[in-house]
Design goal:
Blueprint: E1 2-3, E2 5-8, H1 10-14, H2 24-37, E3 41-45, H3 51-64, E4 71-77, H4 80-90, E5 96-103, H5 106-112, H6 117-134, E6 138-143, H7 150-162, E7 167-172, H8 179-192, E8 200-205, H9 212-221, E9 226-229, H10 243-252, H11 254-257, E10 259-260, H12 268-279, H13 300-308, E11 327-330, H14 336-345, H15 352-368, E12 372-373, H16 374-385, E13 393-400, E14 408-414, E15 420-426, H17 430-442, E16 446-455, E17 464-472, E18 494-501, H18 504-531, H19 533-550
Parallel strand pairs: 1-10, 2-3, 2-9, 3-4, 4-5, 5-6, 6-7, 7-8, 8-9
Antiparallel strand pairs: 11-12, 13-14, 14-15, 16-17, 17-18
The chain binds 3-methyl-2-oxobutanoic acid and zinc ion (ZN).
């Protein structure tokens, strides 16, 4: 069977969508899981977009770009400086790739690039040639290919092949096409473009009309041998094609597709959970493959069928996607060694010092709860992953509430200078009271825009997980700078936090503190960047990128504080 490459863009297209921003360490943790998943290519970011992006891509290239690891790819506009930034970030990987993109539809050429078809053709040629002079593996994307005149698309693709591009990615950037149309576009390129049989054609579909997965699969049927996708389908607007759905469709219907991916399917559910807790974006219960209800059988008729033969209502086994839910025999008498082996069996390779800290927390939990299953352990690991950004450390929470009482909370937090501060607050409920008290200590304006609480396991002693998202106040346009093209100030950033505890009030306090720590960390980074003359010059470049290529503020990233 033919091999289909899975190109994961969770850390690039996924991460650039609202509320999905990740810190460098979070990106590295997600990238590690992508290695366990055995994806062929990790698009680790957009190195020219910010110093932080460059550092994250470079770190992933250095740490995970091994001989037997995935290709590490970075995105670049068809601009020499972007390509240089991309190359310096990825070249440490054993298998580096530069991904150059340039719009080819008339609407993008006229209104965004303010250019012409001949200029775009020349630029595509020059920049692919330049990227190829640095790196043997170059991917080229004619952006908005789905709405590009087919004759011009063929011309640009042929030119990119002549200049040495090794993968031609065909984006339906705005999610406009139907599966039939997308399949025909790929078939047309294979049939009519000289040299198309010497390169890999790739799909890149957005989900604006809910057809991203179907379109990508139609592309595979028509001969594409790389699929670009993201975990949980995150990405610009309605998202990208969902990796888990693509992989399981290819796996379950291999009779039809006659191709195979090398993805380790049992790592799909852990990958979905890791991403969801990292960015604080819950997976809908009815989400295909990884949703809570994807393997739940409720109606009597279905349950009856399942008991007689599971294939009556199940086309995939939950174990195949890593949802075996088996109880692990770990409790309060388990030793450090058993705990570490279990972590390794779950795919976590954690340094000794961190294992010791996790083990302490595990013991605390096991003291209160008899049996721990793997979901509890995963929650502990993800909770610990939030902790590197520890500007404020939550030491104490106490709440008083009840019928007829005004919910009141007292909290103690240790601040960045090492001193502990205690304060109290009142609220409409106990959690509101805790958040008021924390706000009095931290004193940075923010708005709570999402709060979700979930019992990870079953029963009254279930471990509770809380995910929050907060939004910082919109920043004012810097003196001397114009508001962006839409006449607006920069879009406020969203930060997520995750907390896990048997006591959901404590979990809620931890989640809020984690989100505040991320916000404060990002604000500090921005302030540092503003003090640095090079960073200021660089921000101007990012601002140009926002205006020129994405046109409006809702698409402009503000990673280093660019005012779009
Ligand atoms: O959707 C798109 O066109 C993209 C390109 C940058 C590949 O993400
Ligand atoms: Zn995209």
């Amino acid at each position: 069977m033919d091999h289909v490459k899975i190109f994961d863009t969770t850390l690039r297209d996924g991460e650039q969508s609202p509320g999905c921003t990740m810190t460098r360490d979070e990106k590295l943790a997600v990238a590690r899981q992508l290695v366990r998943l055995k994806v062929d290519i990790i698009e680790a970011g957009f190195p020219a977009a910010s110093d932080g992006d460059w550092e994250a891509v470079n770190m992933i290239a250095r740490e995970l770009g091994t001989d037997d690891g995935p290709v590490i790819c970075g995105l670049a506009r068809a601009v020499k400086d972007d390509i240089d930034a991309c190359w310096t970030a990825v070249q440490a990987a054993k298998k580096p790739r530069i991904h150059v993109f340039l719009s080819t539809s008339d609407i993008h050429i006229t209104y965004q690039l303010r250019s012409t078809r001949p200029e775009v053709l020349t630029l595509a040629r020059t920049m692919v040639r330049y990227a190829r002079s640095l790196c043997a593996d170059v991917e080229f994307s004619p952006m908005d290919a789905g709405r590009t005149d087919p004759a011009f698309l063929h011309e640009v693709v042929a030119a990119a092949i002549q200049e040495g591009a090794t993968t031609l990615n065909i984006p339906d950037t705005v999610g406009y096409l139907t599966p039939e149309e997308y399949g025909q576009m790929i078939a047309g390129l294979r049939r009519e473009v000289p040299g198309a049989d010497t390169i890999i054609l790739s799909t890149h579909c957005h989900d604006d009309l809910g057809m991203a997965v179907a379109n990508s699969l139609a592309g595979v049927r028509a001969g594409a041998r790389q699929v670009e996708c993201t975990i949980n389908g995150i990405g610009e607007r309605a998202g990208n094609a969902s990796l888990e759905e693509i992989v399981m469709a290819l796996h379950t219907r291999r009779d039809l597709f006659d191709v195979q991916s090398q993805v380790e399917t049992t790592q799909l559910a852990p990958a979905s959970r890791l991403l969801s807790t990292t960015i604080g974006m819950a997976v809908p219960p009815n989400k295909a493959v990884v949703g809570d209800n994807a393997f739940a059988h409720e109606s009597g008729i279905h349950q009856d069928g399942m008991l007689k033969n599971r294939e009556t209502y199940e086309i995939m086994r939950p174990q195949t996607v890593g949802l075996d839910g088996s109880l692990i025999v770990l409790g309060k008498h388990s030793g450090r060694h058993a705990f570490r082996s279990r972590l390794e069996a779950l795919g976590y390779h954690i340094a000794d010092t961190e294992v010791s800290q996790l083990f302490e927390r595990f013991k605390e939990l096991a003291d209160k709860k008899k049996l721990l299953d793997e979901r509890d352990i995963e929650a502990l690991v993800h909770d610990a992953a939030e902790r590197p950004v520890q500007i404020y450390h939550l030491e104490h929470v106490q709440v008083s509430c009840g019928t007829g009482a005004i919910p009141t909370a007292t909290v103690r937090l240790r601040g960045p200078d090492g001193t502990a501060r205690t304060d109290s607050g009142q609220g409409t409920g106990p959690i509101d009271a805790v958040y008021q008290a924390i706000n009095r200590v931290v004193g940075r304006p923010n708005e709570l825009i999402e709060f979700a609480v979930n019992a990870i396991t079953e029963g009254v002693d279930a471990v509770g997980e809380v995910t929050v998202r907060i939004q910082e106040e919109a920043r004012k346009t810097a003196p001397g700078k114009q508001p962006n093209s839409a006449g607006k100030h920069s879009r406020p950033q969203v930060y997520s936090g995750y907390g896990v505890n048997l006591d959901i009030i404590v979990a809620a306090a931890e989640a809020y503190t984690a989100a505040l720590n991320k916000m404060l960390g990002a604000q500090e980074d921005r302030e540092r960047a503003h003090r640095n003359a090079t960073a200021v010059a660089y921000e101007r470049d990012v601002a140009l990128y926002s205006v020129d290529l994405f046109g409006n503020s809702s698409l402009g990233r503000t990673t280093t504080g660019a005012e779009g």
